[in-house]
Amino acid sequence: MRSGRVSEQQRTAAARRAATPHPAGAAAQAQEASALPWLVLIPGTLCDRRLFAAQARALRGRARVRCVDLHGLDADVGAWAERLLQRLPPRFSLAGFSLGGLLALELLRRAPERIERLALVASNAEPGNRRAQRRSRQQRAAWRDGGAGAVVGRLMPVYLPVPRQRARHAPLIHGMAGATPGAAARAQFAWAALRPSGHAAMAAHTAPLLVVSGADDALCPRAQQQRLLATRPDARWLELRRCGHFIPLERPRQLSRLLAQWLAAPPRGV
Q1: Which of 39, 69, 148, 169 could form a disulfide with 177 if both were Cys (CB 3.0 to 4.6 A apart)?
Q2: 153-190: per-residue pLDDT in tens?
Q3: Could you give phi then psi for residue 239, rounded to 5 degrees?
Q4: Which residues contact 249 (CB under 8 A, 6 or more apart)?
Q5: DSSP 219
Q6: Closest CA relative to residue 258, chosen from 239, 230, 233
Q7: Residue 188, C-beta contacts closer than 8 angstroms, at least 6 positions apart
Q8: What is the spatial distance between Cα 150 and Cα 143, in angstroms, rounded to a whole number?
Q9: What does DSSP assign to residue 196?
């Protein structure tokens, strides 16, 4: 009986030792993690980190992922970008979705030497124009009259043209919009209408560029993607069939694979 109790104690102690990281092993893991590239993700209009939840999980072990919080965006986007750059790592890969791509281009204009790779997902590099300004006025009016739900409700058929996808992802999109402060929402609407062109900054930047678009995206159509490619013929462009605007939600696995391949490409020209 005594020998049995000792054996049980030995097994328990062994299990505890196995569950406790060895100092040398923990140090090696920390060193390995520190060697991973930084990946900064910027969500789109009225979105937050939940948009990229699938990509953050899939890329764990390939990159140190950080998602930018747009709830602090204010009317002075330039000052916001400078504050953000002060908080970001010295060098990082940058991926932006929709409005997040426009903001990524603003970071590129200000600190091109720090950006090792750039990915634009359902985005473009066009400057603000009358159409964008009209949309911004409509969004501000809808927000004033009906809040986040009114803005998203009007755009949902454009965001997700396939009804099945709309039914699946509408609750999350509404939830993210409802969590967005009013001041941040108005700043996002204004920046989308007045942003400068990003083509010159892209042309001067030679690091790997990934462009991912949806074939059924009416907000960022093929013509805009082709202009991106005219500016950077070396870019990799993937147009996803039967896909609308919200690529991170509609095609989470495919986008994660594309980002993993892009991260594996050696940075150059930075």
Answers
A1: 148
A2: 999 999 999 999 999 999 999 999 999 999 999 999 99
A3: -105, 120
A4: 51, 54, 165, 169, 172, 173
A5: S
A6: 239
A7: 45, 46, 70, 73, 99, 180
A8: 6
A9: P
Q: How far is it, in rounded angstroms, from Cα 93 to Cα 100?
A: 14
pTM value > 0.85? yes
In the chain, what is the straight-line distance between the N-terminal and C-terminal CA atoms, in Å?
Answer: 69
pLDDT for residue 267: 86
User: What is the 3-state composition of the chain as percent helix, strand, coil, each rounded to the nearest 5?
Assistant: 60, 15, 25
Give all strands of the β-sheet with 209-214 in edge-to-edge order.
Answer: 64-67, 38-42, 92-97, 115-121, 209-214, 236-240
Q: What is the pLDDT of residue 207?
A: 94
Comparing 1-15, 181-195, 248-262, the range with the smallest average pLDDT is 1-15
At 80, list the tokens. Answer: 């916001």
Pick one of 3.40.50.300, 3.40.50.1820, 3.20.20.300, 3.40.50.720 as the CATH number of 36-131+161-264: 3.40.50.1820
Record the tokens describing residue 262, joined without a space. Answer: 């892009």
**Is 156 strand, coil or helix?**
helix
d(CA 166, CA 14): 52
DSSP single-letter state for residue 60: B
Beta carbons within 10 angstroms of residue 154's beta carbon = 14
